[in-house]
Amino acid sequence: MPYARISSRLAVRLAAALLLLFCLPAFAISGYDETEYLTPEAFLEKVYGDQVPDISLLPLRGDLRDRVEAVLGHRYSGMRLRYWHQDGTTAWIIDEKSKDMPMTIGIGVGPDGQVAVLELLVYREPRGGEIHQAAFRRQYLGMTLTPDNTLSGEVDGITGATLSVDALNRVTAMALVLHQAVQSLAVE
Predict the structure, then answer these.
(1) Interatomic CA distance for residues 91 and 48, integer angstroms
(2) How many Å apart are CA 157 and CA 143, to the nearest integer?
(3) pTM for the model
(4) Cα 165 to chain centroid, rounded
(5) 3-state secondary structure 4-44
(6) What is the distance between the alpha carbons of residues 186 and 67, in angstroms, rounded to a whole number?
(7) Helices first, then strands: H and E counts in the chain
(8) Is 144 helix (H, G, I), strand (E, B) or coil?
(9) Contact predicate 143/152, CB 8 Å
């Protein structure tokens, strides 16, 4: 009888351990930390203050899809993008892979087509998180999109964060392309 009690306790512990193992997120198992620097709500308040507009959807097809994929340098799997639009200002929250994991970036573009707000919302890589620092992100403010869909200014990189900086550059250019698309829809 005592032997049966020990085996049932062992079975319960084993079941709990297996449940815990299979329920952990993949990035936690692989050693990647997720650092949330800013919530989406706080980002939108930085762009719009206390008058945050309702969310909108932008279909991603045709020429717009081609431009977005050219800027990103890879296929974009989404069919549409969520955004916020008010008084000519757009805000975008976009995930883009850095080295191994995606990071979540918020970009606010003013009516003049210039980057007005750039925030790193969530970072999931073990290195390169320095891109969240305000001094680094400040260099994007005021940038626009050139006719060849690149950023209008140079970005000083960070040693050890090259892939993260590249991803931030791509997403910033993508947001500027998307902003132009929304502005052209508003004119029609």
Answers:
(1) 9
(2) 16
(3) 0.80
(4) 13
(5) HHHHHHHHHHHHHHHHHHHHCCHHHHCCCCCEECCCHHHHH
(6) 19
(7) 6, 6
(8) coil
(9) yes
Amino acid (1-letter code) at residue 175: A
- 125 contacts 101 by C-beta, under 8 angstroms: yes
Amino acid identity for residue 45 in this structure: E
Question: Hey, what amino acid is at 173?
Answer: A
Quick one: tokens of 5?
Answer: 């009690």
Q: Are 91 and 99 in contact (CB under 8 A)?
A: no
Mean pLDDT, consecutive 10-residue stretches, the chain (188 aa), reads 51 47 44 82 97 96 96 93 97 93 96 97 86 92 96 88 92 98 82
Q: Which helix (H) or strand (E) holds 140?
A: none
Domains of the chain by residue range: 1-31, 33-187
133, amino acid identity: Q
What share of residues in the chain are helix, strand, coil (percent, to 5)? 45, 20, 35
Spatial CA neighbour of 118 closest among 100, 99, 104: 104
- The secondary structure of 50-115 as a DSSP string is T-PPPEEEEE--HHHHHHHHHHHTS----SEEEEEEETTEEEEEEEEESSSSEEEEEEEE-TTS-E
Backbone angles phi, psi at 10, to 5 degrees: -65, -40
| Cα distance between residue 96 and residue 164, in whole Å | 9
